[in-house]
Amino acid sequence: MSERYRPGSLLIAYGQFAFRTRNWLFPLVLVPCCLLFPPIPSAGLDVLGILVSLSGLALRAGVIGFAYIKRGGIGKQIAAPKLVTEGMFAHGRNPLYLGNLLVVAGLLLIHNSPWTYLIAGAFFLISYAAIVAAEEAFLRAKFGAEYEAYCARTPRWLVDPRNLRQTLRGMGFNWRRVVAKDYGTQATWLLSACLLLIYGAALAPGPRGPAATLLPASLALVLGLAAVLYVRRLKKSGRLQVT
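RE: above sequence
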């Protein structure tokens, strides 16, 4: 795909739509895929999927903790009060979206259905490419040469690890912001992963497969929900203040 997306293209139009509707559009695609196509249980892929998803969550935590950029827009429209180029954004233009794709890839590995790989995998790749196209068109129009220079030195999708330690050395990590801003994503992943593991265990042949997965997955689900409720309580009480 070209480094410069063409303004007015169908990809950008879909990206604007996906940006506005992703909170319901993405589950609307992923959930039916997981329900319609039975999972193929695999302990090895379960572990791999969890690790891949955790790497995505860790990347998101690093982005939000060091230099946060609000990706929700304003009024569900793409917006950017300023061009953020510090922290992880000095090494990749879309580290949050890369983290999201890793989280989704991990869930697909846990589910392990060829049709889900094909349908949901293609959908999420196209959707995030479209959202990035729409955001880039907006940023290029708003920031002009400053954004062009940023694009020239920073990869669109990958995170360039060179000098990353030096970039982050003088920056404080705001763990409160990570918890307050990203607990919803973390909770959604935990809920989804546990339900997929329980679903796969219920279909696994023999008595040993379900028993080995059901108990830890159910326990993780209960503990995760308790943690989410606790964080919500802290936020509502004002004890979890973020900047």
